[in-house]
């Protein structure tokens, strides 16, 4: 999976088309490389796992495999929201592990040219960690924040994940 | 030097066969020492070593041929009655077999290392009616170092009488005493763990079961299409009920079959013990009769791999601490020879392994005193301890009753290893002790680590699964019966005091609000410790397959994994070891704060 992240960078000057899955969180639109996404599922029963960081919602059974679920709202310190029928879990493979991320809504798959990706602005108003932002896409009337979830889990955080009591 | 063998298959065949023969050989040799008259046994040993020699000369492993040839010669003389089996001869033969194992391990690793085989051969040579040529070859050997020059003149001086050689050879053994340790460790690695040999019959059975399963699946498809086409809707429920019963039967059979394929007889671990016991007994100057029962008991590979070390420590302890010297035994009216009984048996879904000796037993007063001296416990702690708790002190890291550290014991590591490994396996340790008459260590281990019997419990509306292997008993208790001792909730249970852990607090579950005065206490045991887990309700017993939580959630305290229940939801599996080991502090703190 590391390769996809690298690819995005190397393609920057090549100006190739990449596909992004766009999703909403607290009325803002985000995009993530489609190659990262394994599947998108509806909300289902989540089993709470004790003694984990607050943004770990719990685990689900994805066809016989137990995978952790992370609330992106909590991860980015956004206000809590009720789950509704548009809430989705995006299952992705992050650093070699399957994981689900809860988002408000998944809208579409868009194609953009590498050239359209601009470096993230130095100051971001929302609570998103600067770290996870791979860039900003300014397309017609929409503004998309391109996320790199691999960066979300820094080495420290991965350790914390398993040792937090 | 890398091994240049044209036919890889041939080489693999050789390695598999040799490994098997060598494993058996150790055992046979030790038995031979006990019953030297057994001609059948003698012949079997001779055949084994001969086969190894033949195969290695065919494949051109010269070092192996040299060692096995000499060993074979000595064995041949024993067989013909020209030599008598003595412990000294056995020492040398066993050393030679160790060397063979090391050489085979080298071949297996794909590298032939130049090893000093001459010193071992030199020890074998005195037992042969050697010719002068061999003796000169030996002394001329440039590789021979240390022991070899000492051995070389020996044959000449002792040519005539074999009897004289024996004590001299025994002396020779001493400088090399450290050496055998290394090859022995190597030898253990000979056993290959990456492939499994499965009985063809088991495979056939498995195939049959899969056939059944396919049949049931077809039945199910048929039933569904019948139902959709509206044929006999009334009979559907009936048929479906029958089908699910059969499916249940077939899958549980299938599960058993697959489980069985992963099973190994515990003999794999047990068979190295006669050798270890023999060497230990000789080193300690004790006379020991090791009796092994139930070595055909089968258990999961993963468990087999883990119990080797704890058993070695327990057996060592039995020999070193448990059994007395022959003189002491006679003085206390016991037979000269001590016995150590090693047995394995199935008990429900557990395997029970016991190590029992008829030595002096464990003196609790001595244990308590030692623990105090070493500062492992305080007087106050000791005062509230029952006799069982005192015995359990021997598991503390750093605990040892030995005044001086020796090769064998005294560092206080052994029992800690036992405890750690048994905990890892979700096992339980029990100690039975009778002062003056011996002690018994009983290990109760789960049969497998992949599928477990578990007790489903409800904690504030959340469902958790507790491995049944560590559950000792469950009881319904009124909360008024709980007491507080030093900030720790406890329950008086018969004659002992049981510390309690509220699972709801440990797992910080949201309070579901029902304020009932009665609750359930699940008493779990991890290794030698017992703790009561307080839960809201017991839901029942279920066989569950363990699913990993992935590496992000791998090391959560108190959670050992997860499982998927009948309705597709995930239930977490409680890890009693994590709770008792790491969670204890949290429990105390939280209940004190409450």
From TrEMBL, chain A:
InterPro entries listed in its UniProt record: CheW, CheW-like_dom_sf, CheW-lke_dom
Keyword terms, alphabetized: Chemotaxis, Cytoplasm
GO biological process, one term: chemotaxis
Pfam families reported for this sequence: CheW (PF01584)
Classification via PROSITE patterns: CHEW (PS50851)
Domain CheW-like: 17-158
Record's subcellular location: Cytoplasm
PANTHER family according to UniProt: CHEMOTAXIS PROTEIN CHEW (PTHR22617:SF23), CHEMOTAXIS SENSOR HISTIDINE KINASE-RELATED (PTHR22617)
Name under which the protein is recorded: Chemotaxis protein CheW
UniProt source species: Geomonas silvestris
UniProt gene name: cheW64H-1_1
TrEMBL record, chain B:
Gene3D superfamilies: Histidine kinase CheA-like, homodimeric domain (1.10.287.560), Histidine kinase-like ATPase, C-terminal domain (3.30.565.10), HPT domain (1.20.120.160), SH3 Domains (2.30.30.40)
Domain CheW-like: 451-585
Catalytic reactions on record: ATP + protein L-histidine = ADP + protein N-phospho-L-histidine
GO terms, biological process: chemotaxis
Any GO MF annotation of the entry: phosphorelay sensor kinase activity
Domain Histidine kinase: 244-449
Biological source species: Geomonas silvestris
Ranges annotated as spanning the membrane: none
Residues covered by the HPt domain: 3-107
Modification Phosphohistidine, positions: 50
Database matches in InterPro entries: Bact_Chemotaxis_CheA, CheA-like_dim, CheA-like_homodim_sf, CheW-like_dom_sf, CheW-lke_dom, HATPase_C_sf, HATPase_dom, His_kinase_dom
Annotated protein name in UniProt: histidine kinase
Alphabetical UniProt keywords: Kinase, Phosphoprotein, Transferase
Keyword Transferase: yes
């Amino acid at each position: 999976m590391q390769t996809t992240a690298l690819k995005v960078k190397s393609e920057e000057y090549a100006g190739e088309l990449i596909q992004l899955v766009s999703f909403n969180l607290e009325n803002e639109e985000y995009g993530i490389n489609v190659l990262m996404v394994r599947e998108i599922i509806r909300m289902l029963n989540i089993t709470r796992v004790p003694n984990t960081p607050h943004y770990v919602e719990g685990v689900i059974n994805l066809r016989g495999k137990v995978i952790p679920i992370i609330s992106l709202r909590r991860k980015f310190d956004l206000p809590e929201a009720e789950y509704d029928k548009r809430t989705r879990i995006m299952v992705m493979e992050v650093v070699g592990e399957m994981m689900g991320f809860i988002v408000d809504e998944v809208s579409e798959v868009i194609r953009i040219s590498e050239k359209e990706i601009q470096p993230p602005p130095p100051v971001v108003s929302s609570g998103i960690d600067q770290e996870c932002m791979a860039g900003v896409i300014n397309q017609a009337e929409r503004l998309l924040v391109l996320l790199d979830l691999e960066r979300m889990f820094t080495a420290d955080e991965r350790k914390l994940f398993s040792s937090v009591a | 030097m890398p091994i240049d063998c044209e036919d890889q298959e041939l080489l693999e065949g050789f390695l598999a066969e040799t490994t098997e023969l060598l494993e058996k050989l150790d055992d046979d040799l030790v038995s031979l020492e006990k019953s030297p008259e057994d001609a059948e046994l003698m012949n079997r040993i001779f055949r084994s070593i001969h086969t190894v020699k033949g195969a290695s000369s065919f494949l051109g492993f010269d070092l192996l041929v040299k060692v096995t040839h000499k060993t074979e010669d000595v064995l041949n003389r024993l067989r013909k009655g020209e030599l008598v089996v003595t412990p000294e001869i056995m020492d040398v033969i066993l050393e030679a077999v160790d060397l063979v194992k090391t050489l085979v391990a080298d071949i297996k690793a794909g590298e032939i290392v130049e090893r000093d085989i001459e010193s071992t051969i030199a020890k074998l040579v005195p037992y042969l009616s050697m010719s002068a040529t061999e003796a000169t070859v030996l002394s001329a050997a440039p590789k021979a170092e240390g022991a070899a020059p000492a051995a070389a003149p020996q044959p000449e001086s002792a040519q005539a009488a074999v009897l004289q050689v024996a004590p001299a050879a025994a002396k020779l053994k001493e400088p090399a005493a450290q050496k055998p340790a290394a090859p022995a460790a190597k030898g253990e690695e000979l056993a290959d763990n990456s492939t499994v040999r499965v009985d063809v019959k088991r495979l056939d059975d498995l195939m049959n079961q899969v056939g059944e399963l396919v049949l049931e699946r077809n039945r199910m498809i048929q039933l569904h299409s019948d139902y959709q086409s509206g044929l006999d809707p009334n009979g559907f429920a009936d048929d479906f009920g029958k089908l699910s019963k059969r499916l249940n039967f077939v899958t549980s059979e299938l599960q058993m079959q697959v489980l069985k394929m992963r099973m190994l007889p515990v003999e794999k671990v047990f068979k190295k013990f006669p050798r270890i016991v023999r060497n230990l007994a000789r080193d300690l100057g004790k006379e020991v009769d090791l009796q092994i029962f139930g070595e055909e008991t089968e258990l999961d590979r993963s468990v087999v791999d883990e119990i080797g070390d704890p058993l070695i420590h327990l057996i060592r302890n039995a020999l070193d601490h448990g059994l007395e010297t022959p003189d002491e035994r006679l003085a206390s009216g016991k037979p000269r020879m001590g016995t150590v009984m090693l047995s394995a048996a199935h008990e429900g879904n557990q395997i029970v392994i016991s190590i029992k000796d008829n030595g002096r037993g464990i003196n609790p007063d001595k244990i308590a005193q030692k623990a105090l001296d070493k500062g492992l416990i305080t007087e106050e702690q000791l005062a509230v301890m029952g006799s069982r708790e005192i015995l359990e002190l021997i598991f503390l890291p750093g605990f040892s009753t030995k005044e001086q550290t020796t090769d064998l014991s005294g560092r206080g590591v052994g029992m800690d290893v036992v405890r750690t490994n048994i905990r890892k396996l979700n096992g339980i340790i029990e100690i039975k002790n009778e002062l003056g008459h011996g002690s018994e260590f009983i290990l109760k281990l789960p049969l497998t680590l992949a599928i477990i019997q578990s007790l489903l419990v409800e904690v504030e509306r959340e469902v958790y699964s507790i491995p049944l292997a560590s559950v000792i008993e469950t009881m319904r208790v009124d909360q008024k019966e709980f007491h507080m001792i030093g900030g720790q909730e406890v329950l008086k249970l018969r004659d002992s005091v049981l510390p309690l852990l509220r699972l709801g607090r440990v797992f910080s579950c949201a309070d579901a609000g029902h304020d009932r005065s009665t609750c359930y206490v699940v008493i779990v045991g991890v290794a030698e410790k017992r703790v009561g887990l307080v839960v809201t309700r017991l839901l029942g017993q279920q066989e569950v397959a363990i699913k990993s939580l992935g590496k992000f959630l791998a090391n959560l305290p108190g959670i050992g994994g997860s499982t998927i229940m009948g309705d597709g939801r995930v239930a977490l599996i409680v890890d009693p070891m994590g709770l008792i080991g790491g969670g204890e502090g949290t429990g105390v703190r939280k209940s004190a704060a409450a």
